[in-house]
Specification:
The complex is a heterodimer. Helices cover about 15% and strands about 45% of the residues of chain A. Chain A is mainly beta. Chain A has one domain. In chain A, a hairpin with a 2-residue loop joins β1 and β2. The two termini of chain A are about 40 Å apart. Chain B has a 6-stranded mixed sheet, with helices on both faces. Chain B has a single domain, classed as Rossmann fold. Chain B has 9 helices and 12 strands. Chain B is globular and about 55 Å long. Classes of the chains: A mainly beta, B alpha/beta.
Chain lengths: ~350, ~250
């Protein structure tokens, strides 16, 4: 397959490193699954296991989830590769699954592409956690349509040891509906997180944020657009980026306020932490406002761990590595704390902790 | 117990301590007084191993262990506690988490069993009660949003939980009203006035010494001890000022 990938000369891809994707695509998956190593959180709801993009029926309990062709066409350069069969969740008015839905994507090499569609009718609600592990290139397109007053909490863990994970989310949020997406990047693979959330209805709420932890020569790259098209919408983008060694973590986050989207309340908090001077954090907050009665706050800062706090902790007996880990964990905690469900939140904290404890 | 001999130290390339010698035996409370810029805080930080405080000569040993060779967290595990003049705020890290991590790291380094969450909470609650700090405050991030007095009280709660062999308290009385001073004074006596412990109180004023009676008072000026005496020396300094003595 020949790949037509965006180049870093394009503004939206300037911090991306897609150079490894061609080789990953030419590679092949081993398809070997260690069932005991699948990182289920154990939420008790429906669950799906995808091995190299193919459903593993034995390990899955689809419940309300459907498997088959997915209506999720896009022009996005990576998202459009995810065609054909995938998974979907369609909830009727007022429906809610009994517990959090869990989806685990295990990759064993090569490239796999998978589309998904989540459509919640009026007042329906769902919570979904997705986890990516393994090696190879996992590419996902997720189309989200929330009806009036529907609520979706989506948590995504990017834990692949190597290879690449790319996400493309396209969401539309109707009147009074709420979409919260929290992403944790705590593996060893390169990532690209691409999201476009349109607050199409009055009083809609959209949140997209997370924590990206990078070391070695790893690259995390997120590009988000929160678009307000109706009045009284609220959006939040809270990102924490941590980079060690020669790694780079980049976040471009934009708030768009269309003409007529009065009383918009948009907030961006982008913060970067450099654990070494050789690391890079790129933060690019953008506002594009065509309405005159809006409140948009944005902050972007990059810094190092406080030397004072480090010494204070050491003076109480905490060794330097542990002190750095505690401070780094505190730095990313508020991004992870946006996750509502305790078991999921704890699992994400544990993954961040695991990353920190692996510090050389 | 703590033996400092001919200690020289530089900060930003500038010599501050210039041959300081001092011995603290177990069961003793010593006060170090002196004018601003005498090197009082430098002494505390040098013994605590703060980066930027460069030892250029002399020795400091705690129970025969060469303190100056050790990393700050190892000094803490050896029994040294440093009470900060300006306790540091640590957003996102709760006091309880901070202290449990600290206490267990020290115990681990000393080859002792680490405390469970329940065991630790019992110790923490007892110390917080003794110093009138609520458990709710201990659940909050370290010193964030604490008043000056609360921060100092928190230093004492930390000292109580860690239970060090020797405490160096740097201007623990600064910024305290008289009630807070009484609480802090009582805390120091309860936690540290014991036959196997020692305290080095660094203070600019004599006030704290009304509550914590020192066995010895030393005057630090120009980077060395220029005079030593009993508790009465503090009163003499209060009456006559540092001018005559530190000249």
């Amino acid at each position: 397959m020949s790949l037509a990938l965006p180049s870093t000369r394009e503004e939206a891809w300037r911090w991306s490193d897609l150079s490894g994707l061609a080789a990953l695509t030419d590679g092949s998956a081993s398809g070997r699954l260690d069932a005991s190593a699948v990182p289920w959180i154990g939420c008790g709801g429906p669950r799906l296991l995808f091995l190299d993009g193919k459903l593993d029926l034995v390990a899955s309990e689809p419940g309300t989830l459907a498997i088959g062709p997915v209506d999720a066409a896009t022009t996005h350069p990576l998202g459009r590769l995810a065609t054909g069969g995938g998974w979907s969740l369609a909830l009727g008015s007022g429906h809610a699954p009994p517990a959090t839905i869990e989806i685990v994507h295990v990759a064993t090499g090569g490239a796999n592409h998978l589309p998904a569609r989540i459509e919640l009718a009026e007042d329906a609600q769902a919570s979904i956690v997705e986890t990516f592990v393994g090696d190879g290139w996992a590419n996902r397109l997720t189309r989200i349509v929330l009806g009036r007053s529907a609520r979706l909490m989506r948590s995504v863990r990017l834990l692949q040891a190597s290879g690449f994970t790319s996400l493309r989310d396209e969401a539309e949020v109707a009147d009074g509906a709420s979409l919260v997406t929290v992403v944790l990047g705590a593996g060893g693979a390169g990532t690209r997180i691409d999201g476009r959330v349109t607050l199409a209805g009055t009083g809609a709420y959209g949140e997209y944020g997370g924590a990206l932890l990078a070391r070695g020569d790893q690259r995390h790259d997120a590009a988000l657009v929160l678009r307000h098209e109706a009045e009284n919408g609220t959006s939040r983008q809270l990102w924490r980026a941590v980079a060690d060694d020669k790694a780079a973590a980049s976040i471009a986050a934009r708030v768009e306020v269309a003409r007529g989207a009065q009383k918009t309340d948009g907030e961006q908090s982008l913060r970067g932490l450099l654990l070494k001077r050789t690391a890079t954090v790129n933060l690019k907050p953008e506002l594009e406002i065509f309405a005159d009665d809006v409140k948009c706050a944005h902050g972007a800062t990059v810094g190092e761990l406080s030397a004072q706090a480090l010494y204070y902790m050491q003076s109480r007996g905490i060794p330097p590595v542990q002190a750095r880990a505690l401070l780094t964990r505190a730095f990313v905690a508020d991004a992870i704390d946006r996750i509502g469900e305790e078991a999921v939140r704890d699992a994400f904290h544990a993954d961040a902790e695991g990353w920190l404890e692996n510090a050389a | 117990m703590l033996q400092i001999e001919d200690l020289h130290a530089k900060v930003d390339g500038k010599p501050i301590l210039k041959g300081l010698s001092l011995t603290l035996n177990a069961g003793e409370i010593h006060a170090i007084m002196g004018p601003n810029g005498a090197g009082k805080s430098t002494l505390a930080y040098t013994l605590g191993g703060r980066p930027g405080y460069e030892v250029t000569g002399g020795t400091a040993t705690l129970d025969g262990i060469d303190l100056l060779e050790q990393a700050p967290h190892e000094r803490a595990a050896a029994g040294l506690f440093l009470g900060f003049q300006y306790p540091v705020e640590i957003p996102g890290v709760s006091n309880l988490q901070f202290l449990r991590t600290a206490l267990n790291a020290q115990r681990k380094l000393r080859g002792e069993r680490e405390l469970s969450g329940a065991e630790f909470l019992k110790v923490a609650r007892a110390q917080a009660d003794a110093l009138g700090l609520s458990m709710d405050m201990l659940k909050r991030p370290v010193n964030v949003g604490f008043s000056g007095g609360e921060k100092k009280r928190n230093e004492m709660v930390q000292m109580g939980i860690i239970d060090p062999r020797i405490a160096i308290l740097d201007e623990t009385d600064s910024g305290l009203d008289i009630d807070a001073l009484r609480v802090i004074g009582a805390g120091i006596n309860t936690i540290m006035r014991k036959p196997d412990k020692a305290v080095l109180l660094i203070t600019h004023y004599q006030r704290l010494l009304d509550y914590v009676k020192p066995d010895f008072v030393h005057v630090l000026a120009g980077g060395r001890i220029v005079r030593s005496g009993g508790a009465e020396l503090a009163h003499e300094l209060e009456r006559e000022g540092y001018g005559a003595i530190a000249a």
